C-alpha cells in the first residue's frame, strides 16, 4: 500500500490534473460516471441488506437481471422514476430536504 508520508494533499488539484478543471467537459463526464457508480453501489448494498437478488429485484420492478447488473456496476444510470421503483422494491425511503 502506498502512503503520502503524512503530507496534506490538495485533492481539488489532483482531480483537476486527472479529469480537467471544474466545468470542463472531461470533468463533467467524470462526475457523471462517478454519480452512476455511486448510485449503483447504493442499490447493490441495499439489495444485499434486503437479501434480494438481482433477479428478484428485476422481477419486482418489471425489468431483467442484466439491467440491474449494469445499474449496480455503474454502466447504466436509471431514470429517476426507475430509481424510485428500485428503492421502493428494496424497502428504502427517499427523503429530500432543502438547506438555505
Automatic annotation (TrEMBL):
Family matches, as InterPro entries: Cro/C1-type_HTH, Lambda_DNA-bd_dom_sf
Classification via SMART domains: HTH_XRE
Residues annotated as domain HTH cro/C1-type: 48-97
Coiled-coil blocks: none
Protein name, per record: Helix-turn-helix transcriptional regulator
The species this protein was found in: Bacteroides caecicola
Amino acid at each position: 500500500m502506498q502512503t503520502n508520508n503524512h503530507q496534506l494533499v490538495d485533492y481539488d488539484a489532483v482531480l483537476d490534473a486527472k479529469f480537467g478543471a471544474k466545468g470542463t467537459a472531461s470533468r463533467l463526464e467524470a462526475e457523471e460516471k462517478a454519480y452512476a457508480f455511486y448510485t449503483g453501489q447504493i442499490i447493490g448494498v441495499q439489495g444485499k441488506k434486503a437479501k434480494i437478488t438481482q433477479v428478484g429485484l428485476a422481477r419486482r420492478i418489471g425489468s431483467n437481471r442484466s439491467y440491474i447488473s449494469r445499474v449496480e456496476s455503474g454502466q447504466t444510470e436509471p431514470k429517476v422514476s426507475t430509481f424510485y421503483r428500485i428503492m421502493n422494491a428494496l424497502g428504502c425511503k427517499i427523503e429530500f430536504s432543502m438547506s438555505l
